[in-house]
Amino acid sequence: MQLNNNVTEFILLGMTQDPIRKKIVFAIFLLIYLGTLLGNLLILVTIKTSQALGSPMYFFLFYLSLSDTCLSTSIAPRMIVDALLKNTTISFSECMTQVFSAHMFGCLEIFILVLMAVDRYVAICKPLHYMTIMSHRVCGVLVAVAWVGSCVHSSAQISLALRLPFCGPNVIDHYFCDLQPLLKLACTDTYVINLLLVSNSGAICTVSFVLLMFSYVIILHSLRNHSAEGRRKALSTCMSHIIVVILFFGPCIFIYTRPATTFPMDKMIAVFYTIGTPLINPLIYTLRNAEVKNAMKRLWSKKLISDDKG
Q1: End-to-end Cα separation, the chain, in angstroms
Q2: Residue 303 and residue 310: Cα distance in Å, rounded?
Q3: Is 91 helix (H, G, I), strand (E, B) or coil?
Q4: What is the Cα–Cα distance from 281 to 40, expressed in whole angstroms?
Q5: Long-range contacts of residues 20-27, Cβ cutoff 8 Å, at least 24 apart
Q6: How many CA within 13 A on the CB side of residue 223?
Q7: In the CATH scheme, what architecture does the domain 2-309 have?
Q8: Residues 177, 98: contact at Cβ < 8 Å?
Q9: CA dihedral 53, 57, 60, 61 (to 10 degrees)
């Protein structure tokens, strides 16, 4: 498909073209990315090494942190390096790879958030059957389905991108390659492709968000039958999830459920779900979760003891 295009590379304008602001962007997003890696890798290591975090909720949290790490890594490093360069070009193949990886791990995050809502629903509304319904085998199958679904979604997105003919210009007013800004550069009528984009990405975001909000309404309604302590603990967990869902899905729905137009605010809004949410997730799930904090303390204590013995 690339042979039919006159464009072999694109120019990414990034967050800004002002030299001073580019240095500020570099510093801020380097810190954000390092914080994202540190926070999510800490959660991954803690869950893998702690026997106390063996419940399905933490099994799904492990994959949420993994998808956060991969989503941020597919976008942030390139953005950070480009902030230091004058020539911010990206080859056609690299651009298509970024489209695929961003949608792959973004979609995986959506599916994992849905699975976490299902897990909380079963835990709160069907507590006596929780371990039977959410067995290790069932959880493994659900995560495998999430991976397959993400691959199907991102394959559909990349097939749409590869169908677009580019004959110039090749300047993308964004900090990463995505279908919306690419549609603006295509030298063909993109009406049908935009409809397919909305029916794919837009539908996944909107339907998942509605299902998640509906499930949490049911969960919160059912909490009235629980004890005060059980209600407090379940409410704390659910509120963490709801905060993540709103921060992630709000920007996604804004970007992917509208006609093929771009707005100056798109780049800042995209920052929320591509770079912001992967940083916020570990903060929310550790600061608001006593079990994770205790497991991290035990892990740190073991490391200090082993270092002292060494």
Answers
A1: 58
A2: 10
A3: strand
A4: 8
A5: 22/83, 22/84, 23/83, 25/79, 25/83, 26/80, 26/83, 26/84
A6: 21
A7: Up-down Bundle (1.20)
A8: yes
A9: -70
Which pLDDT value is given to residue 287? 65
Banded pLDDT at 1 (limits 50, 70, 90):
very low
Distance CA 125, CA 143 (A): 22
The SS3 of residue 227 is: coil
Provide the residue ranges of all domains of the chain, joining segments of one domain with +.
2-309
Q: Which residues are registered as beta bridge partners of 10?
A: 90
Cα–Cα distance measured from residue 82 to residue 197, given in angstroms and rounded to the nearest whole number: 27
The closest of 67, 12, 77 to 267, measured between CA atoms, is 12
Q: What is the DSSP letter of 12?
A: E
Give, for 253, the enclosing helix (H) or strand (E).
helix 228-256
| 8 Å CB contact between 182 and 22 | no
Q: What is d(CA 175, CA 180) in angstroms, rounded to the nearest whole number?
A: 12
Tell me what the mean pLDDT of segment 17-44 comes to: 92
DSSP class of residue 200 equals: I
Please name which of 244, 252, 251, 245 lies closest in space to residue 286, comparing C-alpha atoms: 244
Give the predicted TM-score (pTM) of the model.
0.88
List, for residues 55-94, the tens digit of each pLDDT value.
Answer: 888 899 899 999 999 999 999 999 999 999 888 899 999 9
CA–CA separation, 301 and 303 (whole Å): 5
